[in-house]
Amino acid sequence: MNARNPHAYAGPALVSGASSELGLLLCTALLESGCRVFGLARSAAGLERLRAKGIAGALLREPETAPELCATLAGAYPRYFADLGHSRFESLVGGAAPARIMEWAAQDIGLRARLLRAVTRAMLTMRAGRCLFVSSAAALHPAPGQAYYAAAKLAGESLFKSVGLELASRGITACSLRLGFIETGRGREFLKNRAARAAALMPAKKLLQADETIQSMLFLLSDAAWGINAATVTMDGGFSAAKPEIREI
Is 37 within the bounds of a domain? Predict the structure, then answer.
C-alpha cells in the first residue's frame, strides 16, 4: 500500500493487453503498490515490452492456460483480472473482408470470452476475485469506422456484467470502465491535430490524462470497489453526456 495507490491487493493481478501503453502504466502502478503482476501480450514485440519493464508475462495463445501460467510466474492464481486487450481492426461495416470479420470475432470476442471463463473458474477455487474490463465511450457513440471496435466493447461489457451477476454470491465481482479521449495508443493517433478541438467540446474544456484513468482502474480493480458490480462506469469527462457531434472533431 502506498500514496499512489492506497488499496491493498490480496493476490496477483492478471492483466490482458498488458503491453499496450495503458496496460504498461497499469502494470507498473500495480507493481508499485506491492501487487504481483502477470501480463498477457498478443505479440512477441508486446512480450518484449513487458520484459523491458520487469513485468512477468506470456503470449496469449491458449487462454485456458493463463491461470496456471500466472500461478507459475506470479506465485498464485489471479485474484484480480484487468482486461485491456483489443485488436486494431477498424472498418466501415460494408468495407470489411469476410475473413477479417471472422478473425475479429475470434480475437476480440471469442478469445476474451475464453480468457474470462478460465480466469473466473480459477477464482472460484479461492471463492474470491475482482474483474475489470476497460471499455470505451465509443461503445455507445461510435464514429464511422468504429462499428466492429464498438461491438467488441459492448460484448465485453456484457460478459463482465454477467460474471458479476452470476458469481457475486461466490466472492467474484466485476465491472467495466468506459474511457473517453486519452492521448495514448490509438487515441493519440486520432487526436493528432484534433486535441484542441476535442478539448473544446468537453464540459471541463480539457482531456483526460492517462494517470487519472490509471488511478480509477486501481480503485475499480481493488476489493474496496466490490459494490460497483455488474455495472459500467463512464469516465469521459461528460463528453458523451453532452452528445456533441463527432464530425465537429
Answer: yes
